């Protein structure tokens, strides 16, 4: 059994954060991490997966840095400027599917009344949230792009974690103009200032 198959089997049998943290501690060590990276055929896949493992370790570790859930179409520079560890549930839905967990996460989302009309990425991510296998966020930021699902499902996540006041929706205008740019940048600036005041993290500009 190869290293990737062992990872899949281990997580499928131990679907909990404690095991995930233990696993990340092991595979984030350089010899194991680069051995895992060598199993990918292209350099881009190799470095993407290595970066993902490192980011996940930060998200699951107790490092006293805030964790932020974010949807796909966000300027993630704001996360890094605020010292927030980004965690992308939609992307992780694909990652968990690759680990053979989709059947469990989709079943859990259905058990919690998430509609089957919702896209699979959001259903799977929501199931993972309900199973408590994703790290608890301190902030959640989403936009109205590119689908409507993110707005509602991410808000439901904020309710579950009791952080509704730390849920932010960026309204991206559909037209391109000076006014729309000013409107969008104003929202981003206000969100950054609000998070900075709540977290105590000085905005690194």
From TrEMBL:
<dbReference type="InterPro" id="IPR010327">
    <property type="entry name" value="FldB/FldC_alpha/beta"/>
</dbReference>
<comment type="similarity">
    <text>Belongs to the FldB/FldC dehydratase alpha/beta subunit family.</text>
</comment>
<protein>
    <recommendedName>
        <fullName>2-hydroxyglutaryl-CoA dehydratase D-component</fullName>
    </recommendedName>
</protein>
<dbReference type="Pfam" id="PF06050">
    <property type="entry name" value="HGD-D"/>
</dbReference>
């Amino acid at each position: 059994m190869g290293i990737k198959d062992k990872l899949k089997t281990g997580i499928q049998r131990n679907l909990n954060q404690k095991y995930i943290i233990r696993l990340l501690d092991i595979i984030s060590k350089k010899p194991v991490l680069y051995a895992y990276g060598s199993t990918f055929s292209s350099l881009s896949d190799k470095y993407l997966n290595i970066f993902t493992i490192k980011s996940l370790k930060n998200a699951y570790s107790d490092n006293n840095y805030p964790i932020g859930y974010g949807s796909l179409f966000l300027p993630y520079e704001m996360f890094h400027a605020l010292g927030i560890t980004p965690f992308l549930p939609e992307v992780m839905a694909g990652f968990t599917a690759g680990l053979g967990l989709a059947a469990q996460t989709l079943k859990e989302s259905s058990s919690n009344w998430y509609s089957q009309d919702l896209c699979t990425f959001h259903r799977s991510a929501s199931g993972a949230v309900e199973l408590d296998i994703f790290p608890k966020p301190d902030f959640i930021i989403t936009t109205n792009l590119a689908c409507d699902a993110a707005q509602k499902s991410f808000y439901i996540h904020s309710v579950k974690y009791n952080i509704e006041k730390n849920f932010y929706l960026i309204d991206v205008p559909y037209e391109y103009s000076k006014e729309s740019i000013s409107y969008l940048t104003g929202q981003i600036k206000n969100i950054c200032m609000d998070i900075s005041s709540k977290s105590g993290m000085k905005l690194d500009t």
